[in-house]
């Protein structure tokens, strides 16, 4: 038997999504990295350490997720992980495409990394490689197997779009066979490459995001099947009924999205624009002036998330009288399913 719960926002925990570089060996068609807005530099270890220290007062309740680009391309990732542990960060995760550069699994210990989290966007080689690049399926599968065999807690991320929705059900036996601990189902955001109408993924279908009906019919069902194996499954809530209260994580949670150019966002949907509410200057975290994402967080609209309506309104629907049929939840609001 499985149990589903909505993971509420909490000011008692902090999530730091730390992009230590934007360089990557792959060219995923839905990549959200925008070099113009995020920078193209690779942070030196000294800067990584200083920026981690900026959150030191919260570190015992903070989760740091090292991201890229591909974070394992950073030659000093293992030292960054150890620094986070020295600063007493509550948990450390590495998001990876599976290529595991610089022999990273031999440079850190399972007790130093809470999760290596792998991205796979197709149950078949053909689908995944269409989205992420030739050879990436085999590399990712091999990386997962190596991670599990060396005793690391291992999770898997599957980003759902119209292009690969039909293969999500096929992930159920694969997830079990790979021996992963957590499964994350993500919804594709219309930002970065996926916001470019001339991008191959956009040209492959008239609308990248799945409909409300498709999401509610397929995602919870697949999540429950995976959870029956004892695997924790997390996915965005996405849609709220009109009477449900909307909460913005920018107001009621403690999340930070850090990029190599020093920008720090509180909302991932704002990352394609110079709307960051914080930035690093001389390794000190300072607030930016108006207008920033913080000003948008305060707006209250019937459709729920303001940024969703601004950048990806295609997932909204209205009645004949012009009122919204439903709200779109904050993208940070999650559902979690686990076995009792």
TrEMBL record:
Record's keyword terms, sorted: Iron, Iron-sulfur, Metal-binding, S-adenosyl-L-methionine
Domain Radical SAM core: 8-217
SUPFAM superfamilies: Radical SAM enzymes
InterPro entries: Aldolase_TIM, Elp3/MiaA/NifB-like_rSAM, Radical_SAM_PqqE_MftC-like, rSAM, rSAM_sf
UniProt feature coiled coil, ranges: none
Cofactor: [4Fe-4S] cluster
GO molecular function, one term: catalytic activity
Record keyword Iron present: yes
Descriptive protein name: Radical SAM domain-containing protein
Species, as recorded: Desulfonema magnum
């Amino acid at each position: 038997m499985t149990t589903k719960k909505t993971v509420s926002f909490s000011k008692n925990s902090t999530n730091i999504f730390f992009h230590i570089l934007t360089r990557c060996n792959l060219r995923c068609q839905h990549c959200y990295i925008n070099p113009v807005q995020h920078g193209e530099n690779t942070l030196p270890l000294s800067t990584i350490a200083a920026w981690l220290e900026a959150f030191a007062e919260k570190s015992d309740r903070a989760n740091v997720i090292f991201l890229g680009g591909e974070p394992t391309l950073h030659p000093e990732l293992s030292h960054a992980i150890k620094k986070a542990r020295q600063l007493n960060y509550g948990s450390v995760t590495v998001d990876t495409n599976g290529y595991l550069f610089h022999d990273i699994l031999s440079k850190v210990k399972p007790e130093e990394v809470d999760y290596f989290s792998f991205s796979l966007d197709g149950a078949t080689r053909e689908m995944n490689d269409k989205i992420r690049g030739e050879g990436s399926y085999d590399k990712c599968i091999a990386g997962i197997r190596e991670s599990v065999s060396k005793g690391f807690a291992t999770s898997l991320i599957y980003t759902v779009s119209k292009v690969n929705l039909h293969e999500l059900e096929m992930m159920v036996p694969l997830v079990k066979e790979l021996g992963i601990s957590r499964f994350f189902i993500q919804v594709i955001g219309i930002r970065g490459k996926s916001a470019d109408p001339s991008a191959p993924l956009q040209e492959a279908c008239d609308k990248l995001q799945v409909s409300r009906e498709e999401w509610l019919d397929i995602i919870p069902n697949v999540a429950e099947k995976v959870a029956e194996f004892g695997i924790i499954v997390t996915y965005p809530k996405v849609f709220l009924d009109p009477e449900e209260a909307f909460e913005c994580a920018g107001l009621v949670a403690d999340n930070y999205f850090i990029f190599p150019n020093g920008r720090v966002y509180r909302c991932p949907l704002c990352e394609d624009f110079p709307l960051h509410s914080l930035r690093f200057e001389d390794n000190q975290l300072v607030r930016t002036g108006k207008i920033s994402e913080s000003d948008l967080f305060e707006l209250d609209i019937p459709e729920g998330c303001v940024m969703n309506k601004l950048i990806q309104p295609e997932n909204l629907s209205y009645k004949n009288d012009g009122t919204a049929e439903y709200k779109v939840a904050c993208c940070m609001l999650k559902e979690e399913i686990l076995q009792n």
